[in-house]
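Allow me, if you will, to draw on your knowledge of protein folds for a short while. I am sending you one protein, given as its amino acid sequence and as whole-number tokens for its backbone shapes. Kindly check, if you would, that the fold set down in the tokens agrees with what the sequence suggests. The record follows directly beneath this note:
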Amino acid sequence: MWMTVYMAHNKGDSDRISQLLKDEGFLVKVRSIGKDNKVYELMVPKTEVEEAHQVIVGLC
């Protein structure tokens, strides 16, 4: 099962964070949602959510 780990509000952020997670070895799915597909949902397997979130938090 896939779970959302991050919501990006533009394509650039979505691509950057998705690539970061992939570089760290995570499987990543990106799905555009919302009106005009301007929000991007980044998902990882349920078993990797906590670790992926830690990688994202490390960006801040």
User: Anything to note?
Assistant: The first helix runs from residue 11 to 23. The chain has one domain: 2-57.
